[in-house]
Structures are given as C-alpha cells and as structure tokens.
Amino acid sequence: MEGTSTGRAFLSVIIPNRNGARTIGKCLDALFESRHDNFEVIIVDDSSTDDSVEIIERYPSRLVTLPGHSGASAARNAGAREARGEVLFFIDSDCVVLKDTLDIAVRAYYARPQSVTGGTYSPISHDRKFFSTFQSLFINYSETKHPNPDYVATHAMVISKELFEQSGGFDEDFMPILEDVEFSHRLRRGGVELRMEPTLQVEHIFHYSFWGSLRNAFRKSFYWTMYSMRNRDLFRDSGTASVELKSNVFSWFACVVFLALFLVTGQGALLVALAATCCLNLFVNMNFIRSMARAAGVAFTLGAVLYYTALYPLPVAAGGLLGALRS
Fold it and tell me: pTM of the entire structure?
C-alpha cells in the first residue's frame, strides 16, 4: 500500500463474495496496488462453495464469514458493522479498482460528506471482450448522464459510516438484485443527496458471451420491471433503465409490427414508418452511440449498434413482460 493518501479519512473497502474465485484475486491485487495508503479491505464471504476463501486468505484483508447463504445485502451490512473507517466504499468481487480510485473516493467524500456518491464502470471492461465492453459502455454512459442520479450502484458507492448506520443499511429481505436502487431511493426520500462522480471508476470483469449478455439483459429487466411497477416509476429515466433503452425496445416492437403489416398488405407507407421509427430511435440514442465511438472506435460501435438495436431489445422486453406479470 505504498503511495500518498488523499485526505485524512480512513477508508473501509467492503466486498461481498459468493463463489468469486474467478475474480477475487484480481480484485484484491488491484486494491493492494492502489496509490492510496489509508484503508482497510473487508471481505464478507456469503457461504462460498468454491475456493475463493482460500484465495482471500492470501491477502492482508479482513475476512468475515456468514453462517449461511444470506445474499449480498446481508454481506454488505455485515461488512459495514465490522468497518473501522469513517468512510465506506462498496465494490463487488468482480471489480478491479484503478490506481487512483480510492483517492477519488476519499476526495468525493470530503466534497460532500453528507451525500452518497456513486462511481461507475470504466468504459472498456477488464476482460476486453465484445459483449463485456458493450455492457460496460452501456452502464458507464447510463449512470453518468446526470450529476444527481436516480440511484447509486454498489459497484462503486461512497458513504459515511455514520450515514449508513442511520439509514439502517441494505434491505436484507429485498430482491436478489437492485438492493442498491431501493437503498438509494430510501435515502433520497429521507432528504439525502445522491451524487455521481464520473471519474470514480472500477473495471468490471464480465466474461460475457453472446448468450451471457442476453441472459443478463433478461434478468435485469425482469427484476427492474417488478420493482418499478411497485415503485410506480416504470417510465423514469433511471440509470441503466434509461430513456434510451426504453426507446430502443419500443422502437423494435414498432418496427416488427410495421414489417409484419407490410408483408400482409404491401403498403409502402409502412416501410416509410419503419424507417422513420429506426431513425428516431437512433436520434434518441445518439449520445450513447457517440460515447461508444469515442471509447471503442467506429468499427466496434457499428457492431454494437447492430446488436443493441436488432437483438438486445428482445430479452429486455421478455424480461419486462414476465416481470410485469409477476408484480
């Protein structure tokens, strides 16, 4: 932990782990190579069945073990209870901090100590695969659009320990994902400011294949739709549940309808409507497309736009429909 620290606050980095053997070593390597030198690492193992605990024990971190599989919320709450730091920094076991990530986290805390500050994924994923980088770019763009976001994600969340304790922590009886969204909304209703710091970044290790990307889209949409319908904010521009993504899904379905009607009726006006819908969707998503081009180049962006507009809407819509039926 060589280097100079920024600020006076002692930082507690809290990481839930559940069968994270594939990534936890890279996560810890990066933390202990950080330029920051005033921090501790607390890993809460949620009854892993792989050899991740053996990997964790090789590092100078503090290991907390839960007696049974309890979920990420319980793991994070347990880590916060054990934290000695004035500031808590939540990340995931498949996240890799950059050299200056911890310094930026502490500076973000000092800028507004009574706020909850969020970071995001780096534009390019740690594993550099096409579908992983697409996901990382999508999340980076979606989460950093607004300085005061709708939620702060736990892949990079900075909060004072005092405020976290006052909040009651993460809801341990919530869904298996999106606990950070519920937590953020609860704090905001209580008058706490949510802030986004775009330079606070971690590299995510996705290892996404084509099918893995589609499965993730289905799962996230399923739970997000259930939560949003209960929260009555289904059409809100909320991070990865963005206006751009919703436009993309609605446009895809509209194009399918126009094409089907054209094949039945032969009316050329339907092809004009289809083309206009596609153009409107590209216009709504233009800032996202530009962000991909800046970060990954034109060739990547052409393939990503084709995937995003032609295939990605299907699992998102399927998950959303099932989530609506289940809510």
Answer: 0.94
